[in-house]
Amino acid sequence: MSPKTQNIINWVLTGLIAALFLFSASGKFMANEEAMKGAEMMGLTPGTMKIIGAVELLAIIFFIIPRTGVLGTLMLVAYLGGAIATHLEHGQSIVAPCVIAAFVWIVAVIRFPELRQRLFNSK
Fold first, then answer.
1. How far apart are CA 70 and CA 108, in angstroms?
2. CA-wise closest residue to 54 among 82, 22, 15
3. How far apart are CA 29 and CA 43, in angstroms?
């Protein structure tokens, strides 16, 4: 595969993750009815939802920027770990946050050679 093709694939995958998290964060900032209903069910206030949305937004910005992409990966996966714990606490399915976390890791390993080397070639 040519470097240009690989670069295009990297940015398309990054864009998919960015779109997913931007959609999620916008729901928290705009306080749409569905997001607020879910937040109330989990005992979260609108103010807390805005903080969570800000964390999501910051993490995705770090993920998109190549220089801070590995940090963004760690932030997104930590965020999703919190989502998994919250879902478990409230008896909800953890399939969606687990699949998203796996997808974030797969994209990060494809996109960041230094992460791939650190994870798979450590001595």
1. 7
2. 22
3. 17
- Interaxial angle between packed helices 46-64 and 33-41, expressed in degrees from 0 to 180 and rounded to the nearest 10: 110
Nearest CA to 77 out of 53, 97, 49 is that of: 97
Q: Bigger pLDDT: 66 or 32?
A: 66
CA–chain centroid gap for 102, Å, is: 10
Type of residue numbered 72: G
Q: Which of 5, 3, 10, 8 is nearest to 111 (CA)?
A: 10
How far is the C-alpha of 39 from the C-alpha of 49, rounded, in Å?
7
Q: Are 29 and 52 in contact (CB under 8 A)?
A: no
Q: Please say whether the beta carbons of 21 and 76 come within 8 A.
A: yes
pTM as predicted: 0.88
Instruction: Please give the C-alpha separations between residue 103 and each of 44, 47, 67, 77, in angstroms, as whole numbers.
Output: 27, 29, 20, 10
**Confidence band of 45 (pLDDT split at 50, 70, 90):** confident
